[in-house]
Q: What sequence folds into this?
């Protein structure tokens, strides 16, 4: 078996890359060997920090014989073009979410990779988080009977973080459905087995100055009878991370007043400043913070989630699971690793080196997009939508990283 | 104005009365003057404790000229007969929830009271709780803009508390829809203004040994555009009171492991024992606990509730409200009184002595039942149900019992 690090080429050194960098830089199973980005300063920093080759075009990166996998982290509008080009050059692809906002584009990417016989993984998304995977394993094992009801809410400040204009335009993939429901739907599909049979939803666009969906609530049916209730509010008042031990989405301790600060920061700028401010936080930008050596305080997460099974409720925490069953309440903690999002590399390794199918493959992610689109359509038509592209989740990988501790 | 205590006659000294007794016994605005119950021991205790007259028939109680209001706390199947009889004798009526499980019976009670020109209040229910009323007042005032999304979940051990067979039979009013959704629906209707325009729901009956609905999740639309997401799981694993400062539904501090204990207690008995065990906890029963002089630790509540408005999220707590707005997080605490459920007497007094319309009148409660029935019907038909009997909430009473305290 090939135990060599996976040689990664990066297409796009923007926000998504910035968020993945602590993983790539610290996980020995991958090596950053090349990149392309139109911003010269980001490329120079990349070359300096990682000794990687900086290409002067997308195609040049795709053609680089030293690159095994390409991490496509360009804006989602360019994913199809870049995934297809990568496949054309025989490269495997890890593409950021959202895979696309069009079913046809997702299908084109799947077809291109099939034709080239290259692998395709979509991520990171919060369904990679280890507590989600552990819950999935326990549900699959059947020890708690069937999963019946999944209850999940998330109250964030998404709408008032610095945004580019396209992020506030639903037709361009803006708003919380494409960006945030993508996480929540992926998680509940994984927990419920994958095949959504109907979607009923309401969306809210309450702020006339930011005219895209900032909230939604939806009921999803699954083919095995499970039901998921997913609710999201990105308008920045209540912060549901207080229900997650004050650990934020990115696995770091969060201070009280974060949402208030997000809102007040925004009021002091204008639209142009806002987009600029956002860009400056990216890799190589003026406000970029190197956090490569800051270990996480817990797993990344996407807000409170409870899976009600016949014989237990599984509550996801930033450290693992809190299991409520006939024996009381038990913490099943799995937080140990020091590298955020190393679960992405687990899956990458499993596919690239162990020959497994990805959990987050092309068809899987197309099906998640389909549910997100159904949320928008259901809210518009005010009726239930029946998806047609749903697929089952692949079996979980075997893992050996849990330890129990009693809390009652 | 008449400032005399309201002279109350009690019809039925069972579970509902037992739960209301700490209120009646301690609130000086009411006086228990008479009762009827087929159980002699309960009647004797009543006469001894309150000096009230014990009647030997329902009709005799209804005819008692010393009785102003009759508290109808008999099984819900008898409510119509008893409310109509009370009205026939010119008595005002406070009737327990559920008012009925039949729209026709609700209408008959409304008609009887209208004809007799007597007042009708339905309660207690958890929409009487002061934090709910305070949230309602703030929403009505418009200072936070419109209410947009109401998110509420409740995870209880309802299904494994000792039950009579009829409580596990939906056709007889058993299960969580008639008993528990009645609370949740009443609360969200009050917060959203009252007029539900559509109901989409899924129910769960997961335990073959207790064949009634133990869980549900539903989306409700309102005429003003608000949406409510109501979710309930009564299967006794996770306890959402941990999200309510460990204050239980009845306003008392709750110990960890309560749900586990409920389940294990049940396993040790059989069906007959179970019904008997339940009866023994009632007023005058072998296991009755006199808690008349134990002050509550917080307001009664029905689990976590967040009202998302344009300009704030209002989170209900056992002490009042936690308000999240542009200025941060503020506790608006209203917990001060020492008598549980005194809000029922507030409303009773407002109607009986101040001549106001009740918030929880007949038409209001019929409309809540209609939504509960729609939850069952929607889950069965798997489509949205459009209610036709909905009414707006009456205006809140003026109250002067809040104090602010900052927490951020």
A:
């Amino acid at each position: 078996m090939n135990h060599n690090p996976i040689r990664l080429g990066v297409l796009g050194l923007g926000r998504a890359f910035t968020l993945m960098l602590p993983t790539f830089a610290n996980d020995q199973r991958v090596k950053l060997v090349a990149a392309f980005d139109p911003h010269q300063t980001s490329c120079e920093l990349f070359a300096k920090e990682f000794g990687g080759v900086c290409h002067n075009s997308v195609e040049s990166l795709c053609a680089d014989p030293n690159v095994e996998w390409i991490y496509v982290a360009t804006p989602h509008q360019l994913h199809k073009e870049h995934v297809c080009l990568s496949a054309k050059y025989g490269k495997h692809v890890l593409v950021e979410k959202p895979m696309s906002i069009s079913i046809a584009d997702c299908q084109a990417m799947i077809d291109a990779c099939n034709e080239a016989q290259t692998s395709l993984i979509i991520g990171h998304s919060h369904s990679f988080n280890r507590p989600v995977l552990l819950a999935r394993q326990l549900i699959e094992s059947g020890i708690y009977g069937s999963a019946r009801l999944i209850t999940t809410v998330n109250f964030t400040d998404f709408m008032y973080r610095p945004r580019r204009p396209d992020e506030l335009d639903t037709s361009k993939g803006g708003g919380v459905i494409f960006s945030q429901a993508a996480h929540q739907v992926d998680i509940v599909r994984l927990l419920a087995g994958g095949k959504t049979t109907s979607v009923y939803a309401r969306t809210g666009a309450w702020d006339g100055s930011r005219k895209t969906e900032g909230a939604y609530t939806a009921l999803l049916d699954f083919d095995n009878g499970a039901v998921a209730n997913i609710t999201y509010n990105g308008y920045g008042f209540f912060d549901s991370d207080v229900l997650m031990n004050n650990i934020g989405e990115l696995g770091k301790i969060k201070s009280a007043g974060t949402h208030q600060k997000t809102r007040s920061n925004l009021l002091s700028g204008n639209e142009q400043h806002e987009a600029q401010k956002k860009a400056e936080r990216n890799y190589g930008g003026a406000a970029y913070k190197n956090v490569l050596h800051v270990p996480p305080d817990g797993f990344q997460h996407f807000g409170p989630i409870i899976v009600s099974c016949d014989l237990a409720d599984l509550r996801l925490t930033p450290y693992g699971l809190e299991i409520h069953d006939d024996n009381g309440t038990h913490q099943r903690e799995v937080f140990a690793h020091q590298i955020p999002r190393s679960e992405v590399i687990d899956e990458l390794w499993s596919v690239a080196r162990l020959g497994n199918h990805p959990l987050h493959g092309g068809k899987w992610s197309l099906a998640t997009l389909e549910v997100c689109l159904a949320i928008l359509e259901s809210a518009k038509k005010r009726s239930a939508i029946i998806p047609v592209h749903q697929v089952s989740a692949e079996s979980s990988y075997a893992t050996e990283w849990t330890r129990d501790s009693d809390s009652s």
Q: What stands out?
A: Chain B is about 35% helix and 20% strand. Confidence is low (pLDDT under 50) at residues 399-408 of chain B. The first strand of chain B starts at residue 6 and ends at 11.
